[in-house]
Amino acid sequence: MKIIIAGGTGFLGDRLKKFFTSRGHRVFILTRQPGQEHEIYWDARTLGDWKDYLEEADVLINLTGKSVDCRYNEKNRQEIYTSRIDSTRVLQEAVDQCGHPPKIWLNASSATIYDHSEQHLNTEANGIIGDDFSMNICKSWEAEFFRAENPETRKVALRTSIVMGNSGGAFPKLKAVTKLFLGGKQGSGRQKVSWIHIGDFCRAVEWIIDHAEISGVINVTAPQPLTNAEMMNKLRKRMKMPFGLNAAVWQLKIASFFLRTETELLLKSRNVYPEKLLHSGFSFAYPDMEAALKDLIK
């Protein structure tokens, strides 16, 4: 297949590139700073020569967007919003101009679209979507993505949870704080953590591409969310750490200020279930946290 990954130089894009090239597919990366083979310049806002690569592509994957691991000041809020909306909009313009557009377009979204929930398990069908900055970003992002229809292009929005891998994302930070004996619960510890192993993430993307009946929004999460306290306990045991100090909300607020991030990333309860993936027949290699940690920490 010919696969285009927009914003593909980060943690997820790099792993997808390696995953698909190892299977013999051709992967092209759209990036602001091309430097390697098959990397093409784009500014994620305006049409350019990069649009020619979408012609006769089998797959388009858009992962573009400023990281939410930052302070939510006005400048960062605007960049988080525009980086997602502008890139999705200009990709739509490019797809519209293709004589032979991509057969499938997968656009990043987030499991953060669902409201804080410690009890309600959010599926694609019954998920409760709330009203705050993060959720509204996701709603606007998906609305922009689904605004136009292309008969020849199947569209799928990936409501992805925390992706667990050693080469990026949240997991290396969780390991680091655990090594410093700070791997206790954060806040109440009751908040649910929805997650997925990086290997299952790549396999799920491949599965969605291969199964034409899957379209619309889909939860890309492992089937067993767990509480923050449970996750940190399992991580401590796997890393053979005898204890981990708990962190109260007030302590997290102070730490997040100095680390230039937000407490929401740790304290929001993301209780999400991959109903569509499971109903389509997808099988997780790492369905529970113990299996994931056993693979990631050796």
Question: What's the arrangement of secondary structure elements?
Answer:
Layout: E1 2-6, H1 11-21, E2 26-31, E3 39-41, E4 59-62, H2 74-97, E5 104-110, H3 133-146, E6 154-160, E7 162-164, H4 171-179, E8 192-193, E9 195-197, H5 198-210, E10 216-220, E11 226-227, H6 228-238, H7 249-258, H8 264-267, H9 275-279, H10 289-296
Description:
This protein has a single domain, classed as Rossmann fold (3-Layer(aba) Sandwich), CATH 3.40.50. It is an alpha/beta fold and 298 residues long. The longest helix has 24 residues, at 74-97. The chain has a 7-stranded parallel beta sheet, with helices on both faces. The chain has a two-stranded parallel ribbon with strand order 7-9. α2 (74-97) links the parallel β4 and β5. The radius of gyration is 19 Å and the shape is globular. The chain has helices spanning 11-21, 74-97, 133-146, 171-179, 198-210, 228-238, 249-258, 264-267, 275-279, 289-296, and strands at residues 2-6, 26-31, 39-41, 59-62, 104-110, 154-160, 162-164, 192-193, 195-197, 216-220, 226-227.
